[in-house]
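#lab-general

N.A. 3:47 PM
ok so I finally got the sequence cleaned up, no stray characters, all 265 residues accounted for. can someone with queue access submit it? mine expired

B.Y. 3:52 PM
send it over

N.A. 3:53 PM
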Amino acid sequence: MNLKYLEHLDLKQHAQEWYRYVLPIFVLVLALFLIVFLVIKPTKKQAMWEQERDVRMGLLEIKDDAVYDPAFVTLSPTEMAIAPKAVRFDSPMGTEHGGLSYNAQPFLTDRHLGDDLNGIGGQNSDLGDPVYAVSDGRVIYAGWPTDGWGNVVILLHELPDGRMIETFYGHLDTILVPVGKNVRRGQKVGTVGNANGRYLAHLHFEIRRYPTLDVGAGYAESALGRLSGELSLLKWRGRPDDMLSAAPRESESYRQSLKVNTSGE
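B.Y. 4:20 PM
back already:
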C-alpha cells in the first residue's frame, strides 16, 4: 500500500509551532523559577548571618555575595591596627602568678589545644569564679558558638614586636564584656563555667598566633597555630618573676568605656 503525504505529520511545521508557542512558555517558567530561587536564597542566608551577628559583631561585615564561614574569616587590617598593645601578662585565673589554680590538662596533652585551668578545690568548686583578661586586648568574639564550647570570649592583642595574637576563654558561665570593646589586663571578661553542665567547671584557655574569628576545635592532631598558654604567659610577663604586676592605669576615656560596658550598650 502506498503511503500518502499527510500534512499533520509535517515535522518542519510541528517544529515551527513548538518554537513559536512551547519554547516561550518554557523560558517563562524557567525565569519564574530563577526569580523565586534568588529571592528565597538570600532570605535563608540573611537568617544565618543574623544568627552569627548575635555572637560576632566586630568591624567585619558579612558580604551579600558570599556565604559566611568563620573558618575562612581573618580580621581586617583596620581591626588589627586598633588592637591594644600587650606589654604585660598575668594568669586568667587565681592570682597574677596563677596561684590558687592548677592546670588539669596542659597544652597538647592527649591532643588538647589549650590549658584546662581549675581552682584548687576541684570538681565544681570554681564554678562562677572570675576569669580575667591576661593583658590589654580587644574583644573580637563573645558568644555561644556550640554546646561543646559553651560561652566563649576571644581577645585580640598586639605584642611589643608587632605580632598579633589571640587569647581564648572557653566554657564560660557568664560573659562580662561586649564585642568591639577594649579591655585592660586584669579586667573580668567572664566567669568559670561548665558549658551548661557538659563538663566539670573549668576554664579552657588558649593562645593563638593568628588573627581569625574561627572558634575552631579544642582537640587536633597538630597544634594548629596554638601556643602553650603557661609557657607563653611566663615568657611574656614583662617583669621579673619576683615583681608583682601593678594595677593598670585607667584613663578617663577608659573609665567612660567601662560605664558603657556595664550598661550593656
